[in-house]
Write a structure and sequence with these properties.
Blueprint: E1 28-35, E2 38-45, E3 51-59, E4 63-64, E5 69-70, H1 75-78, E6 80-83, E7 88-95, H2 96-102, E8 107-115, E9 121-129, H3 137-147
Antiparallel strand pairs: 1-2, 2-7, 3-6, 3-8, 4-5, 8-9
Length: 151
Amino acid sequence: MATKRKVVRRAPGSARGKPPARERRPDVILDVDCENALLFLVLRNIGDDLACRVSVKFSPELVGLGGERVVSDATIFRRLAYLPPGKSIRVFLDAAPLLFSRRKENSFRARVQYRNRSGNEFSETFTHDLDVYRDLPEAAGASIRARAPAA
């Protein structure tokens, strides 16, 4: 009786026919959080490897803290040595009602640049429109409270 042989094709470098592992890499995003009518910029590594030499360039610059500071010029956005996977850094931008009362144009772009451990460079641009937070009940309620006369 003849014996049948089963042929298993393997990808180069894979063992027992398993597909090759996906390359681990950092994936850094710049997001916006609104909590209790306060706006935060959030730099987050959603990837599965360390991000090195992280920087963010904003256009236009973001003035916050009641109009007192160019938040987008903070050192953390210019030269962050590394950002581990799963790590987030929240930076206070401004109270929503104050920001909306000062700014006519509430959209901005953030270009995030970083490297992986091997030195490969990555870059991505995120566009945000802060007006999406204007109609949130918490932001609207804070705006009403900010305009109410003191008792």
